[in-house]
């Protein structure tokens, strides 16, 4: 018998999106282009401005925005920084900027927003760096009532509730300030490269491809062959996750997913709605591989874990969805559940490749390689005037020229050198020969691998060269 709702439902951090394969001079898939929370969607654009729709900030304080609006902070500094990543939970949100700063807003209960107090904040407010070691932040993950922060020295910090052991401190004592979370490993040089926060459980991967989990475990979402809660980080054995290294980890309310170095998806935890994609509705207490054939024999680029559904993006730019279909959040054109991955046709994205996906409670969102934002599901948070059963591009009048996601910065000489390799009219009088040998090698390989004009259409390159298509 399923007891899915015996505990108060927790929103959790719905979607943690990061790619392990960097793509030079293209959309920045190592940053989070869109984020779905409980009933909100945030999307940073290429200039670092954050757009939001739904219940912005703290649900019980902030007003609803039924169309995408520009987010403003508690002071002018927020607008001056470039947001590259967002993590949204049930009643709080965190933002990471390119400057390495952490901004948070929402409920201050249990000090979950990291301000050394329990006060609520309606607008994004800067978290003092001294509270988490004084170093730049490179990633943040929000659970229902806790927050994980990854800093530039590859160390992990946490704040918020300790009730289910989700901070990995070994106790449930309340604390009103950031705590450094240590992995119980004899090697003090362990580098954490990614963190994920579920409803009340947490996970982290290291530079050596190891995976640690801790916290609430009723549905086996920790992957340790049992359902006991764990109050300190526990290492998953190589036998549990298979021999390949774990590169990425994603946590939803009650299920967890990982991608290994071979691009294969591993799933475990609650499967009640088919959100594990295994063709059944059974909980899994250990990491279980989903065959590549389920994704057209492609490797996994990134994953968006929702409360009851999952979005998977493959390296060839296709989107697969599975789990609960209520509110049309799978994008299949109906309200039916699907326990197996189903490809959402590229025609719904203007035949563009998908680079980022995020799954919320009752909605979904993706960003395409050309920076377009598509949303579907419950109308309150998607920016549309009605529920949408299929992906629909967001084109509010105030955002007609907006492109979402980050683009890699290029030195002008590098951009010109790349352009020279594909644009015969630039001529030979270029700084190409003055570049570093390594850069020249990258340019040659890039030009050879893209013999057509696709490289000329890359948005980041176009902007650095003054816009327009660089066609012979």
Characterization of this structure:
This protein has 472 residues and is mainly β. The protein folds into 2 domains: 35-399, Regulator of chromosome condensation 1/beta-lactamase-inhibitor protein II (Methylamine Dehydrogenase, Chain H), CATH 2.130.10.30; 412-464, no CATH class. Helix content is 9%, strand content 33%. The chain has helices spanning 77-80, 238-241, 379-382, 412-422, 437-449, 459-464, and strands at residues 35-36, 40-44, 50-55, 64-70, 83-88, 92-97, 102-106, 121-126, 137-142, 146-151, 156-160, 179-181, 192-197, 201-206, 211-215, 230-235, 246-251, 255-260, 265-269, 284-290, 300-305, 309-314, 319-323, 338-344, 354-359, 363-368, 373-377, 388-393. The radius of gyration is 22 Å and the shape is globular. The protein starts with 34 loop residues before the first strand and ends in an 8-residue tail after the last helix. 53% of the residues are buried.
The largest pleated sheet is described as: 4 strands, antiparallel
Helix content: under 10%
Low-pLDDT parts are: 1-30, 424-428, 463-472
Q: How far is it from the N-terminal to the C-terminal residue, by CA? A: 66 Å
Structural class, from helix and strand content? Answer: mainly beta
| Count, helices | 6
Number of domains: 2
Number of strands: 28
User: Shape, please?
Assistant: globular
Q: How much of the residues is beta strand, in percent? A: 25-35%
* CATH level-1 class of the largest domain: Mainly Beta
| CATH homology-level superfamily of the largest domain | Regulator of chromosome condensation 1/beta-lactamase-inhibitor protein II
If you consult CATH, what is the topology of the largest domain?
A: Methylamine Dehydrogenase, Chain H
What topology, given as strand order, has the largest sheet?
A: 1-2-3-4
